[in-house]
């Protein structure tokens, strides 16, 4: 049968060496130094030396003396025999035939290693476990493991597994009761009644008020936003904003609130007064922040998915609507630029030929250029086309979307400035 929170396997492994040890583990944890050898070599006969060495390394690595000191992995016996130069390791079977010798060895090792009885530190360990449980909220198995480490660090011989398990369970329960009573004492009778009211199911409803309040928004819509704000307002209006819960460790409060958020109202209702009040208080304190965060998160999603998305769709429609105007204006500018390049290109060719012949020609006049351009695109239409392109496409050094948004009406924005500079 399991020892409360320990499984059969865990209880059986307590205070014992592993069934199998690797060579690396043997060399790391079971090497005999000069001091060890001095103690061992003082014993008569090989089986006493080997048995004494087994007890030495066992208590050092486990923190306890085994009822049967030979109940260890065979590879450990061989490794110790190898270090001690004992050829036949099976001689250790004779160790313990004289029980008095074994107990004398235990006494010697306790004195040499400075080991203490558990009863000497039991109260101190209990206080330490309770303090750790109060601060961390660790589970019983975790507390059991750190308690074993605590004992070994202080060279205290491990007690029986049942004794240590019961000490851990009792101190953890004491820490929990302290938590519940501390939080419960922060409340007056009216507040306790208000918390109990959260577990009641209103007439005509299927769920308790607590079930309703701890349910976050699940849809993204205007009505859901209204519900989220109402939920936050109702939770904040319960009257627990001013309750100072900093008297308990944050981890314990968070642990208790998780239980309150996830637990069924019917189960919470069956708890004792202090535990029920403490759990509900921690839950409400958590929901005060969570409900506001849920409302803000929903608002962010609404803004991103509804308002900004709508603005982007309208912007895209506006771009599509103005594309024909932009294309027409661009075609006029392209035609005018083509004439300009053609006229100036022809003049440059004539100038090069004249230079080769040793002659010069008159430079092309602006009036001539405009005459050629206006033969293709009237000047007034060209001015309107330039304004349209600047308004719709923006200048070269601007962001396309920014320019599109910044474009104004006729003669506004960049267009007016371009008209003044060009003409």
Describe the structure.
With 423 residues, this protein is mainly alpha-helical. It has 4 domains: 8-113, no CATH class; 118-184, no CATH class; 189-309, no CATH class; 315-422, no CATH class. The chain has helices at residues 8-13, 23-29, 34-41, 46-62, 74-84, 99-113, 118-136, 140-153, 161-184, 189-197, 209-213, 222-236, 250-262, 265-269, 273-356, 366-374, 379-393, 400-406, 413-422. Helix 4 packs across helix 5 (74-84) and helix 13 (250-262) crosses helix 15. It comes from Thermocrispum agreste. Residues 5-170 form the DUF4158 domain. InterPro entries: DUF4158.
Keywords:
single chain; 423 residues; mainly alpha; 4 domains; 19 helices
Poorly predicted ranges: 403-423
So how many helices? 19
Q: State the secondary-structure class.
A: mainly alpha
- Shape label: elongated
Number of domains: 4
Distance between the termini: 100 Å
Mean pLDDT: 84
The major sheet is characterized as: none
Which range does the strand content fall in?
Answer: under 5%
What is the total tally of β strands? Answer: 0
Helix percentage range:
55-70%
Summarize the structure.
This is Tn3 family transposase. With 423 residues, the protein is an all-alpha fold.
Task: List the topology elements.
Layout: H1 8-13, H2 23-29, H3 34-41, H4 46-62, H5 74-84, H6 99-113, H7 118-136, H8 140-153, H9 161-184, H10 189-197, H11 209-213, H12 222-236, H13 250-262, H14 265-269, H15 273-356, H16 366-374, H17 379-393, H18 400-406, H19 413-422
Helix pairs in contact: 4-5, 4-6, 7-8, 7-9, 8-9, 9-15, 12-15, 13-15, 15-16, 15-17, 17-19
């Amino acid at each position: 049968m399991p020892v409360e929170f320990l499984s059969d396997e865990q209880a059986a492994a307590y205070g014992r060496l592993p069934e199998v040890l690797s060579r690396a583990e043997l060399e790391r944890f079971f090497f005999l130094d000069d001091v060890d050898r001095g103690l061992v070599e003082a014993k008569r006969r090989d089986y006493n030396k080997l048995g004494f060495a087994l007890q030495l390394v066992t208590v050092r690595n486990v923190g306890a003396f085994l009822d049967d000191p030979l109940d260890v992995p065979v590879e450990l016996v061989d490794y110790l025999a190898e270090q001690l130069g004992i050829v036949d390791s099976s001689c250790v079977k004779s160790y313990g035939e004289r029980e008095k010798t074994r107990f004398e060895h235990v006494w010697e090792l306790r004195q040499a290693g400075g080991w203490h009885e558990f009863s000497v530190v039991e109260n101190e360990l209990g206080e330490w476990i309770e303090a750790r449980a109060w601060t961390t909220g660790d589970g019983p198995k975790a507390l059991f493991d750190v308690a074993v480490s605590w004992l070994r660090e202080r060279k205290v011989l491990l007690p029986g597994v049942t004794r240590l398990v019961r000490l851990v369970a009792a101190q953890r329960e004491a820490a929990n009761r302290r938590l519940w009573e501390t939080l419960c004492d922060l409340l007056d009778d009216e507040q306790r009644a208000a918390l109990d009211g959260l577990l009641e199911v209103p007439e005509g409803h299927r769920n308790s008020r607590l079930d309703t309040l701890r349910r976050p928004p699940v849809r993204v819509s205007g009505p859901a936003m209204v519900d989220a704000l109402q939920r936050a307002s109702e939770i904040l209006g319960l009257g627990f904003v001013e309750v100072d819960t900093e008297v308990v460790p944050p981890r314990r409060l968070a642990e208790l609130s998780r239980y309150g958020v996830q637990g069924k109202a019917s189960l919470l209702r069956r708890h004792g007064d202090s535990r029920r009040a403490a759990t509900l208080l921690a839950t409400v304190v958590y929901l005060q922040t969570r409900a506001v965060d849920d409302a803000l998160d929903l608002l962010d999603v609404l803004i991103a998915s509804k308002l900004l998305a709508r603005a982007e769709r309208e912007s895209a429609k506006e771009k599509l609507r103005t594309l024909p105007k932009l294309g027409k204006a661009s075609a006029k500018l392209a035609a005018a630029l083509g004439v300009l390049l053609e006229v100036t290109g022809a003049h440059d060719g004539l100038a090069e030929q004249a230079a080769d012949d040793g002659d010069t020609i008159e430079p092309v006049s602006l009036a001539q250029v405009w005459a050629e351009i206006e033969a293709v695109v009237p000047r007034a239409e060209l001015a309107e086309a330039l304004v349209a392109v600047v308004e719709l496409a923006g200048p070269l050094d601007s962001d396309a979307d920014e320019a599109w948004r910044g474009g104004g009406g006729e003669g506004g924005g960049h267009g007016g400035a371009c008209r003044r500079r060009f003409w």
